[in-house]
């Protein structure tokens, strides 16, 4: 019954995914419509000006293909986060997004790093590892679904493709794993079975030997009918 209440369907868990997706598409539309170039607002490692990208990079995309490829996994993973991990969802998204950008700013190559891919890897890592760590059967099932859908993403935390910010992917992946450990006891966790003693257990001693409690016979005292003959009974 507790799981039914916890996993109760609510339209509110779709709010953040929809707002985030609309935001990045609107920003990209403005960039194209008015001939802007927001790439310079991405993360540029180890420079003061480039540090602003830690906060802005997750909303900037280079082209329509880049934006579209991030949109579907963003919606799926954000929805999973806010439905199954709503107790920590905002912390994972906000603080996880910051640390993903910050680590990228520290370790990445000298180039502008843009895109919501870091958030995608953050959510992928957090949702997958949280299910494995918590061992709740529904969360484990979710982890298996996520790894089935997006397991191939793991290769892109390595420098195997030119022009791709594998550093941002790696930063998001590590941050998600760290947050899964930190928040492992928040929200849904597998409950340990609590043994309860029953009447049947009382029939055995501490060594497991059958030892039912002794029943003592109570000797009945004869009733003196003459002593009660003079008592009045009132109904």
From TrEMBL:
Alphabetic keyword roster: Hydrolase, Membrane, Protease, Transmembrane, Transmembrane helix
Gene Ontology terms describing biological process: proteolysis
Compartment(s): Membrane
Claim: Cell membrane is one of the keywords in the record: no
GO molecular function: serine-type endopeptidase activity
Spans annotated as Disordered: 215-235
A single GO cellular-component term on record: membrane
Transmembrane segments: 12-30, 67-85, 92-108, 114-132, 139-158, 164-182
Membrane topology: Multi-pass membrane protein
Keyword Transmembrane tagged: yes
Residue ranges of domain Peptidase S54 rhomboid in the record: 54-184
Name of protein: Rhomboid family intramembrane serine protease
Species annotation: Polaribacter filamentus
